[in-house]
Amino acid sequence: MPKGPTKRRPETRAKLLAAAGELFARQGVGATSIGEICRQAGYTTGAFYSNFESKDELFFTLFDAHAAEAIETIRQRLEALDVESLTVEELIAPFAHIRPEERDWFLISSEFTLFAIRNSDAARKVAEHDARARAMLTPVVTRLLAAAGVTSPAGVDHFCRYLIALREGGLAQSLVEPENLDHGELERTYLPRLLRGFEK
């Protein structure tokens, strides 16, 4: 039989992750200490280190969980559609949908990305996690492209990079100028035109 601490481990990790996500979004990754995360979650630093080796490991756990959740949301929205009878505009709608929590994650990931650009070890870790996120996205995008009747000229992984770049760049602009640019507006405007321009 598992001992008590073992059975509580998933709950402890979940609370630490939730506390870290809240603090990272509010005050920044660099400005948040492990002690603050523990106090916010109601645990000791010993509980932290029994679950994570470092703040970086906790961040990347958040990264993977967020990517999986976001991609699953897109997959479910696409699965709910009758792709055979939809226009290209309707097919890309799941990719243009921005969830309310995206603002907080954008603040967190942007800060860490800037850090990674200056730090080669962090950059390698970010690249590895980005690759895993694209691997999760690939089946969804493959289905989208097949339904649209087009082929990516440089492969699906390359097209996933483009989708992520467009989504993150558009989100940044709409967060800065919400009165001038709606969330997902760039995707809704330009992705259908891009797909129609691909050689069939």
TrEMBL record:
Residues 10-70 form the HTH tetR-type domain. Gene3D superfamilies: Tetracycline Repressor, domain 2. The lineage of its organism: Bacteria, Bacillati, Actinomycetota, Actinomycetes, Propionibacteriales. SUPFAM superfamilies: Homeodomain-like, Tetracyclin repressor-like, C-terminal domain. Residues 33-52 bind DNA. It holds the Pfam family TetR_N. The keyword DNA-binding applies. Keywords: DNA-binding. InterPro entries: Homeodomain-like_sf, HTH-type_TetR-like_transc_reg, HTH_TetR, Tet_transcr_reg_TetR-rel_C_sf. PROSITE patterns: HTH_TETR_2. This is TetR/AcrR family transcriptional regulator. PANTHER family: HTH-TYPE TRANSCRIPTIONAL REGULATOR RUTR, TRANSCRIPTIONAL REGULATORY PROTEIN.
